[in-house]
Specification:
Strand order of the largest sheet: 3-4-2-1-7-8-9
CATH topology: Rossmann fold
Radius of gyration: 15 Å
Number of helices: 6
Low-confidence stretches: none
Number of domains: 1
CATH architecture: 3-Layer(aba) Sandwich
Length: 190
Amino acid sequence: MGTLHPTFIVGVGGSAGSLSAFKALFGAMPADTGMAFIVVAHLPTTGSSLLDQILSRHTKMPVILAASGMEIMANRVYVIPPNADLSIKGNTLNILSPPDVTGKQVDCLFISMAESRGTHAIGIILSGYLEDGTKGCKHIKAKGGITFAQDLSAEVSSMPLSAQLSGCIDFVLSPDKIPGELIKLSIPRK
């Protein structure tokens, strides 16, 4: 099971107010979905982040600080390092530091997921300011993937509302309800 490739790659993006949303999402997520989760948050450009350590207390899945060249495996959570863009190609992570455009890390990940994984890409937009993630959700939808946005439970609603207003969101839910829909998506269709 160690080298099992994921059925879906799920990008989870957030900014201000997203920590409680991340905790609720992963606290309700089973550890054996067969999916891989990549968490992108707007982090300070200097110093280090404890996001991987914090999230590891809310899930039974291994939580790993992402690094370039790392293979993406099922039932794992990968967390963006500070001051970086994170993208994927196939089943491999790629880190670019410093980021091309600060505050667009979610778009960067989601666009690469859409290009690499097509119908097996899932984007989730949680609490945060401005509109990061909206462009990426449009790409995911255009390639046949699935998109989610946090409902009015978002502490800061700009990011999820921007995505919803773009017309490219499939599900609007609280973070603790998203895992139920993801499980339904992971069940093979007959």
